[in-house]
Amino acid sequence: MEAQADTSSDAPQVTMEVNPEYLKQLKDLDIPEEEAKKALILTGNTSAEDAAMLYFESLENHNLDGDEDDVYYKMVFVVNMELPMGVGKVAAQVGHAAVGLYQFLLKDCKTREMADKWDMYGAKKVVLQGANTAHLMQLQALAISLDLPTYVVQDAGRTQIAAGSHTVLGIMGEEENVNKVTGKLKLLN
């Protein structure tokens, strides 16, 4: 890491080179590039996961250039890591969860408004690791107890896994409440 002083302004600013692979991973999570760089620098470039957690916690606490009255929404997808799914299969299952959850949201006025606000603030989506089917069901029960919309994908069984397997849990809601359910899970990598 190389630090450079920027002498173009009255107060010198220190800039740090960020790890380009970590930056790419953060941008893949729909984190704006400047915010991703800021999070990487604040976490000492240790990992994309640490920077992502800082960014999302900062949004939750309204510390990153936001109006404190704004409520942020996000969609989280928890992948059942117990199932032997390839990368393409996981991507397809997360896609099913996103479409299914979004269709569910559009059916009701209250959740349709939530979907509109989510879309207005960048349609944040995060993919996380779940341990197994029981774990996904526990997370779903907690989400439902917090009045968060959920959607569970059950596979048709045509390719890699058995029919009826619970592959992905989708959860949508105010970021603060969603974090109560999934805040301690690891990012899918």
TrEMBL record:
It holds the Pfam family UBA_7. Its EC number is 3.1.1.29. It is an enzyme of class 3 (hydrolase). Keywords: Hydrolase. It catalyses: an N-acyl-L-alpha-aminoacyl-tRNA + H2O = an N-acyl-L-amino acid + a tRNA + H(+). One of its GO terms (molecular function) is peptidyl-tRNA hydrolase activity. GO terms for cellular component: cytosol. Residues 19-65 form the UBA domain. Gene3D superfamilies: Bit1 (3.40.1490.10), DNA helicase RuvA subunit, C-terminal domain (1.10.8.10). This is peptidyl-tRNA hydrolase. It comes from Pyxicephalus adspersus.
